[in-house]
Design a protein that fits this description.
single chain, about 240 residues, alpha+beta, Structural Genomics Hypothetical 15.5 Kd Protein In mrcA-pckA Intergenic Region, Chain A, Alpha-Beta Plaits, 7 helices, 15 strands
């Protein structure tokens, strides 16, 4: 669908409509290789280049970030340093704005998805979808050996909850390190599951969501996902 050039560029965070008027007049924008000077020109996204580069993806962009420790998944800067501060200025100015798919708390690192696709956020966070997440866990005390069976049973009740946790998979590395795969997003769920076994999580890192692996991204780094990778995000849990 065609949009006004200034409207399109503004929605992608390239500047305000006022700023873009002078930028466009300067010849910084081309359509099919030809410079354009009228901000109200109707254009297709794929036809436009800004200062010689293709435009950022349109609405529906998905970013994968390796969230560092100490940062919060919120738009409220009173809660602490925001993960959005790691994004480019242009990404931060997009409309609709980018939001995280669920949250990782301040003391949890790892795979975090950020998108402007509200339908995708709903699909990936809906309790009806059994999208699994894998967490790498370090513990304060040795495990007792019964955790894997308990977590897989679907009978574990967390304090303050009215229904048991859905079955989860525990892969033990050694007596104080493991990977836990869950399909829910209850408040501090992994920490509370181990607390129910009289243990304490000392480090927590999400390494996978659905069929999507964090890979080699360093803390604070991020990259855009391809359409194929986005489809992997919703891969469901299978027993």
């Amino acid at each position: 669908m065609k949009k006004r050039l200034d409207q399109l560029l503004s929605s992608l965070g390239y500047g305000s409509r006022r700023e873009l008027k002078s930028i466009i007049h300067s010849g910084a924008v081309t359509i099919k290789g030809q410079r354009v000077s009228k901000p109200d020109t109707k254009v297709e996204h794929a036809e436009v280049h800004f200062r010689g580069e293709p435009l950022d993806p349109p609405e529906g962009m998905v970013i994968m970030m390796n969230k560092p420790l100490g940062m919060v998944c919120s738009h409220d800067d009173t809660e602490g340093e925001l993960v959005y501060a790691l994004l480019s200025e242009r990404y931060r100015q997009r409309s609709p704005k980018l939001s995280t798919v669920g949250r990782l708390d301040k003391e949890t690192s790892g795979l975090l998805l950020i998108t402007d696709d509200g339908k995708l956020i709903h699909a990936l966070t809906s309790p009806k979808k059994r999208v699994f997440k894998r967490y790498e866990v370090s513990l304060a005390e040795p495990m007792n050996g019964e955790e894997a069976e308990l977590f897989a049973s679907g009978t574990l009740m967390l304090k303050g909850e009215k229904s048991p946790c859905l079955p989860a998979r525990l892969s033990v590395y050694d007596e104080q390190h493991a990977a836990l795969e869950i399909t829910e997003g209850r408040y501090h769920q992994v920490r509370r599951m181990f607390a129910a076994t009289h243990n304490r999580v000392t480090a927590l890192h999400r390494s996978r969501m659905g069929g999507l692996e964090l890979g080699e991204l360093k803390p604070g780094e991020y990259r855009l996902l391809s359409a194929e990778e986005i489809s992997l995000c919703s891969e469901e849990f299978s027993s």
